[in-house]
Design a protein that fits this description.
By secondary structure, this protein is mainly alpha-helical. Helices cover 79% and strands 0% of the residues. The chain has one domain.
């Protein structure tokens, strides 16, 4: 099995990177949609449009990208020689990836709040939350590339 993972390493890495890009695009865009949704709430005719956009972004793009990111990431973890557990970087990356996954689920819950008509956050709060994936991405990229 380890020989297979080693032989597939370039493919696994490429698929992991593509999955991360798709996931990150959604993590950047969904909070922005929530900002527009909150700020256009007075226009009742826009609510169904925003709800459909948010639903499709989450279910069609973000959820499959999250799963693919985790699958290919775990395959990389199990590929011999890729991760050195005695170093700090896998732990900082792992913590950031777990935080990113939590944020994904937090966004999914906010979408459910909109559906239920129970959103309690402002456009400003969603704008601030829009920075979370950026900070986590910086930690992840620096962890893997610089290996601090």
């Amino acid at each position: 099995m380890t020989d297979l993972l080693a032989n597939l390493y370039p493919w696994t890495k490429a698929l992991h990177i593509m999955s991360v890009i798709a996931w990150m695009a959604g993590l950047f865009y969904l909070p922005r949609l929530f900002v527009y949704h909150v700020e256009k709430e007075a226009m009742a005719d826009m609510d169904p449009v925003f709800q459909e956009m948010e639903y499709k972004l989450l279910r069609v793009i973000m959820n499959p990208a999250l799963v693919a990111t985790w699958v290919f990431g775990l395959l990389l973890v199990f590929t011999p020689g890729v991760v050195v557990w005695s170093e700090v970087w896998p732990w900082t990356k792992g913590a950031a990836v777990l935080s990113m996954t939590w944020f994904h689920h937090w966004l999914a819950q906010r979408r459910k709040d909109f559906v239920a008509g129970q959103n309690g956050l402002t456009g400003r709060q969603f704008r601030m939350m829009n920075e979370v994936p950026t900070v986590l991405m910086v930690v992840i990229v620096l962890s893997v590339v610089v290996r601090f």
